[in-house]
Amino acid sequence: MNSAFMKAATSLNNEHVAKWKESGRRVVGYTCSYVPDEIFHAAGILPYRIRGFGAADTTIGDTYFGPFICSLPKCMLQLAGEGKFDFLDGAIITPGCDSMRRLDECWRKAGGDIPGSLPKFFFHFGVPHKYADYTIKWFAEETRRLVDAVEKHFGVKVEDDTLRSSIRVYNKSRKLLDEFDALRTADDPPFTGTEALAVILAGTTMPREEYNGLLEKFIAESKKAKGISGKVRLMLVGSANDDVELVRVMEGSSALVVADNLCFGSRFYTDLVEEEGDPVLNLAKRYLSHNDCPRMYGDYKRRLGILREKVKKAKIDGIVLQNIRFCDLHGSENGLFERDLEKEGIPCMRLEREYGPLVETGRMKMRVDAFIERILQGRREIA
Amino acid sequence: MRQELKEYRFDWMLYSCFSSAARLKSGSEKEYRHSMNYIPYFRGTVESVLGAGEPGQKFIELTAKYLDNMINAKERGLKTAVTTFCFSPAIFYAMDIMPICLEVVSVMMTFAYKRGTAEFLDYCNEVGYTETSCSSQRGSIGAYLAGLGADIDMIVTDTPGVCDTNANAFAFAAAYLDKPFFQLDMPPDLTGERSDEYHREDYKALIAFLEEHSGKKLDLERLRANLIELHKQDEIIAEIEELARVVPNPLHVAGNLIVYASRFLFAGMPECTEVLESILRQGKENAAKGVSGLSSGTEKIRAFFCYIDHYVQNLKLWEMLDEHGVGYQGNILSRSWASSAPHVQEYGMQEAAYTLNTADLDGLIDGMAMVNSRMPMIKSIRGPYDAPNMWLQDTLSLAKMYSADCIIYNGTPGCRNTWGMVKLLARDTEKAGFPTFVMNADAFDERVQSWETTRDRFLEFLTVRRLI
Amino acid sequence: MTRVAGCDVGSLTSKAVIMEDGRVLESVIIKSKARPWESADEVMKQALGKAGLSMADIKFCVGTGYGRDKITFVNEAVSEIACHGRGARWLLPTVRTVIDIGGQDCKAVKLDDSGNMLKFITNDKCASGTGRFLEVMAKVLGVELGDLGALSVKAKSPITLASACTVWAQADVIQHLNDKVPVEDIAAGVNAAMASRMATLANNIGVERDVCMTGGVAKNDGVVSALEKLLGVRIKRIRRADPQLAGALGAALIAGDRANGGKA
After folding, report:
1. Whether A77 contacts A113, CB under 8 Å
2. What does the mean pLDDT of chain C come to?
3. In this structure, are C155 and C245 located in the same domain?
4. Are strands A121-124 and A90-93 parallel, antiparallel or unpaired?
5. Beta bridge partners of residue C23, listed in sequence order
6. How many whole angstroms separate alpha carbon B166 and alpha carbon B164?
7. C86 and C8 assigned to the same domain
8. What's A329's DSSP letter?
9. Could you report the predicted ipTM of this complex, rounded to two decimals?
10. Which residues 6+ apart lie within 8 Å of B40 measured at CB?
């Protein structure tokens, strides 16, 4: 049941993408959860979340990016340079953060050196750093600009009604993922955090209707499945992670990652898009209001509140606050979260890591094990 | 942090240093020489700056005045706003708010103290702030986070969309200290109706925020006066920059530093104007005589610094340049985008320049918003580096205009937005015929790469590329 | 008579401790072999040999350190953080903050009244701030690792070293040597750089008295006194046993808990 999700989550040019391309249709990649996929869906294009998963080294990435840069965009560029993203007909770059923003020029220059590695449609999609009436207006205009560019380049027309129906399809996913979330955070969850991440990741790689079908089946089966009990319940917070193995290492034999606030995780699917009215404005509103990313400066308190609520709702025993080295946005905010949540008696552990091939699992495992031991000790005291 | 650092407020200590330095030349030469013995670690900085003659003296007086304002703000009934160097302080002065420019304060401490801001940098790490963040804000922020400065009233930045690590420093401090926070957000384009409108609406929101947290209403006349003074300053800077085109460059080697530091601290205020006029005077005198501003009188080559300088103790960077006959052709920090600016004139970049309309409130706000969105970094580090009006275009056009023989990049390891593409920039500038040197140093933290190694590598570059 | 054992397999050294009814029977420190299970087997063999015992005499054995999951003869694997904390508490009953600088990583652990972990922090990506840093520097200086501490005490004017990166710090040391800076001054700078990184790490979790150091670097007086100055507290020296044994000791103590019916 889960193998479909696991397969889709762990291979880039998976069978869904291959089938899609064979039928003569196009695929456009995007790097950030602020890009409204619904647009591509409405244009008959498969939106595909670009990841760095599977990069074995960063020799190409390092050629264009300088040192002191987070390894996420480097791995993405590495894959592009190796031709692993040749199936993309387009790519959308956003200023998610400075390192990711520079993927724009680095990829373009690499494209000049390595023929075929730069998708033909390459678009820089601006995203404001706060939510206000004029930023929404700007962002709606930017979204409209993207729609126009897609229409022009791909020779398609994206009517408002089509966009609205795409929104409905995606909202269906969101509602299903809410159900999935409820199962994930049940007292005895029917699946592990590793499996949960695979489920979420798979959604970024395949046609939405197909995904919704698989999700429905998965939810139905999970409801009947036996729950996993007696594990320490962790929440994973911080920098992007698209590697299920990372979660597996953390879960080990005694824990479950039952919640997260990652952008390849719950940030990706919470909150519905308004279905009535101007679809472009509605998309802009929902996507920009996702202030769960520390790139939305000045909103720390709200994000803290979201974590607090999740801890309560999901009955979290401890939070793993991880960041990729050089990710200052998550890294520093994790420092604030630790201070404030520990004060409220919620065990937290900060962990800095590299993005890329999992090579330091021993060290990571030791820390997480120690953290779990600390949590269990705490429980014993109370008992 | 060593106990000694916690004994006194850091801002008071800094004020004490610079205000004493400002009085050094008011006695006899003998008294001056004698005083130097009492400041073994600070004398290098003092001698370097005062060695620039009248502009140096006026500059030290300006820094002393600034620090005096800073530590006495509360007593004088002013609110304080911690802000960044690329945020034009004219608006704060117009609203009786004392702007605390973190990076310039970091520069002062890095110049003056033996260990620079090392312990404050480390303190940030202790309270959860990442050590990989830029050291320019981190040095001063650490002091504030440790409670070693006067209480802050608000925190304001304009680097979202331009520089994450900068914006993040202010956001972190605001969350950590629980202070009101405001960001001016920058869209990826500099010009165009959408960007103009965005800048304008955002700036109005800024004013509303400042009014709320200062309890003062924006005084139109004050703002108008400040903007007019600011424009006047930009015109003086334009003249100074025009002088820099002369071969040999008649300006003092640290002239550019004095220009931009004064600007960041006192834009729109007469203190800055006075310093600029002094530099211009000195430059004109040298130009009339056809001499170089370097102390040897001989300019061997001209270097354009495409980003920022290196602030190691005692202004050793400028000393090295001076010693080796390297004319300093400027960096991005002094650039204004007034229509009178030489680069605007030379390349017909009127569209990129700001226009000042001081007629009414809307005009003033528009003008101020435009001025602000053309501050260093804010102007040229948005969107991709090779887009119109962005960093590559600026670097090449300025290097060409100032007849630079080479281009030097220096920053900090925390600078994500430049390290993300500096290799690409260097590739382009080399292709355009400018030998380019990417320094691996940290402008504010010598522990990353010692000054000796930094200097050796710099000179090695000049030698290997047969520039000297 | 309950005999238990603790085995701590580190990257540079491996340690084994055999305890009987809360007393240390034997302890051994060896240089680690290429594979962790080989190190574990060897050090345990030596310890048992010294005690005149066999594995069958050991009621419970806890393994810790890198490779703890690969040791076949342990009954339970516990993190080195928990073990170091526990071991340090036994070595110094009043300790609240444990600073451990080992070969490849360093950590700070805060303990509660019962000796359980309250908070901990470990260094992440960098060699500087670990024993490795000192090893490299000692080599460049041409001195024995063990002499770095004694040397630095003699320093008249310690240098400020580039502490951010081991590689660049190395280049710096070479530069200083070329400039004929006395070795003592450089050694003092090296120790200070190390201490500075450790202090920042420790301050992250908040240092509370009493503070002690475990791990090999605890024997370097230069680092210890530099650290004391930076933290503003005395670091209590451990006299009860070799501080390098803290991990194995803690493991043995936890083994004792288990042997006496304590739950995992």
Report:
1. no
2. 88
3. no
4. parallel
5. C20
6. 5
7. yes
8. H
9. 0.95
10. none
A325/C125 CB distance under 8 A = yes
Q: Which of residues 188-227 of C touch B (CB under 8 A)?
A: 193, 196, 199-200, 203-204
* Contact between A298 and B424 using a beta-carbon 8 Å cutoff: no
CA distances from A254 to A376, B27, C86, C263, C264 (A): 10, 75, 21, 15, 12
Over the stretch A118-135, which tens digit does the pLDDT of each residue have? 999 999 999 999 999 999
Taking the whole predicted model, whether its pTM rises above 0.90 is answered as yes
Q: What is the CATH number of the domain that holds C138?
A: 3.30.420.40
A contact test, residue of B129, B135, B412, B419 with most A CBs within 10 A: B419
Interface contact A370-C66, CB threshold 8 A? no
Nearest residue in chain B measured CA to CA from A125: B188
Q: Which two tokens stand for residue B25?
A: 């030349």
> Whole-angstrom Cα distance, residue B437 to residue B169?
28
Total of domains in chain C: 2
Q: Averaged over C40-44, what is the pLDDT?
A: 95
Closest to C217 in 3D by CA, of C133, C91, C153, C97: C133
- For the cut 90, the answer to whether the pLDDT of residue C171 exceeds it is no
Model confidence over B6-17: pLDDT tens digits? 898 999 999 999
Q: Are residues C99 and C66 in the same domain?
A: no
Q: Which residue has the tokens 């004013």?
A: B207
Residue among B133, B127, B374, B415 nearest A294 (CA): B133
Residue C263 to residue A383: CA distance in whole angstroms: 12
| CA max distance for chain C | 63
Q: Are residues C101 and C231 in the same domain?
A: yes
Residue at token pair 């609205």: A164
Is the Cβ pair B449, C232 closer than 8 Å?
A: no
Q: Which of B418, B422, B338, B369 is nearest to B158 (CA)?
A: B369
Q: Which residues of A touch B132 (CB under 8 A)?
A: 68, 325-326, 328, 331
| Residue numbers of the domain that contains C41 | 1-92+240-264
